[in-house]
Structure formats: structure tokens, C-alpha cells
Amino acid sequence: MRIEDIAREAGVSSATVSRVLNRPDLVRPETRARVEAVIREREYIPDSLARGLASKQSRTVGVLIISISNAYYMEITETIHKRLRDTGYMMLLGATDDSPELEKRYARDFAARRVDGIIVIDVSNENFASGFFAREAETRPVVLVHSNPSLRGSGMREVFLDQRLGMRLAMEHLWGLGHRDVTFLRGRRGYSYDLKEEAWEEWLRERGAEIRPDRVLRVEEPNTEDVVPLAEEAVGRAIRAGLLGSALFCCNDLQARGAITAITKAGLSIPRDVSIVSHDDTILATSGRVQLTAVDLRMNEVGRAASELLLEALAGKGTAQDSVYIAPTLEVRESTAERVS
User: Based on the structure, what is the number of domains in the chain?
Assistant: First the structure.
């Protein structure tokens, strides 16, 4: 069956059928529904290779994330997927495990598959500094989602998440509740963890508080579900060694869930004995017995912003310097309370 046959049965032109297949957002809903009904009934499968060769577009977009099992990345990519789907694009997904080499390999593989554009969430400093993605942006639109202030204004399309601000909001909240001894739980490596720890130290230094290295707990596999038992173990050791302060900041919700288990197993109460603030505010922040106070990175807004920047670029709109700033907020729930003397 050909496009012409679909058009005849739906009572529209071949050009309308083509728009339904390639740019459904440009077709009136009732017309689109009528054409799609014929396509389903006839089980029509368009030749995507032929369409790509003719239009010089693959109607695919590559998205790079660090981890599939971290809800932070999945909530962003779910929003991206829905927006791309609604405009006739398919999303290809690659998880880099925080490896610059794997990030580069996937980006090259996307290019070999002739994707129309690429979105990189938490771009590695190495591949940015080397100019890899700047060179890639010369052949197809690239949107970077990141929290590194030194990358801002680099001349590439970007969505900037102000995680330093988020960390300060968390510390302001805990400080206001009387907590002066805040333990910091982080991944062993990763720029966002370094950034948050710097903000944690900055806050304490500004107030003349002691910065204790033994209040920093580090875990491996920080961005995958494997970190939950590792965080439990790390916080458990800190409790047994008397190194857990009156409050605990966790760099993501996965780490926070492991920390909660360790604290409750030790017979301590949240928030009476220990207040906890988490970061990201994914579904994990509100899905357990303890509802977490958390820094909300507004993942849906991030996904929408990244999608729109890319779609505008693919439509020949906007500029390569387009930038969107996302300011996090703090969602206060039951895991924090005033420090008990």
C-alpha cells in the first residue's frame, strides 16, 4: 500500500498523509485522527529509510543520559520522549554510566545512524572541554543539559540547572531549623557531587562553622539503583562511629532511600533524631514511608526546555547560543524538623 492509497481512503491529499507521518503537529486533530485510523486499519508501515533519503531527515533524535535506573534521568527523558513523539520524531537513548568514552562512542553511533539532533543530559567536562560536542554541533543541532557554571555562555544551546542554588536552599532550610552539624552523602566521583560539596563547604565557611572531612560520606555507583544498599552501609558505619550529625544531606533520592533504611535500623527516628534533605525530588522522594524534603530540579520543565530548544533548531529557528535557566525549589515535607537540643 502506498501513501496515495491512504490518502484516497482518508479523503485527503498525499501531502496531508505525509504531514501526518512526518509533522503531525501541523495537522488539524480531526484530520490527523482520520488518517491515522486508515493507517492502523491497513497496517501501513512507511519506509523510514526511503523517507530519510528523500527528505535528508531521519526523524530520530539521540538522547544521552548517565543511568537508566535513576528516576532523575528517566523523568526528564519521559518528557522529551512525549514531546518528540507528538512532533513525529523517535527517540534513541544511550546510557553512558558516567563514562566520557562511552558518551563519545554513543554520540558517534547516533551520528552514524543519521539522527537529526542530540540532547546530552549531564554532559561530561572532558568531552565539552575537548570541543567534541562543539564539532558535533557543526553538523546537527546539539542541546546540552548541565549544571556547570563554567560551561554557561559557551555558544551552544543549553539548559542550565542551578544546582549550587539548590544546595544553598537545602542548607538554608536546615540552618533555619537549628542544624549546625550536617553530614553530606555523595557519590565518589562526578561533577555534580563536587559542585554540591563545594556549596556545602561554602555555606559553612560563610557562617564560621567547622568543616569536618569526616562528615562527608562517599559511595560508589551513585547514579544507579545499586547505590541504595551502598548508601545504607555508609550511613550505618557513620552511625556506629558517631559521625552522623543532626541532619543529613543526600545528593540524590536513591542515596536517601538507603540512608533512611540505615537510620531506622539503628533505632533512630526521622526527623526527631536525624533530619534528611534529598536532592532531585523524583517519585522516590514521596513513594516511601518517609516523605522526603527535597531539592526539586523540576525535571518536567527541564525536559520540555531541552525538547523545545532542539525542535526550534530543527525548524531553523532560534540561535546556537539559546540558553534556558532552571532555578530549583525546595519541597519541604516530613523528613526535616527543628533540631532537638
Answer: 3
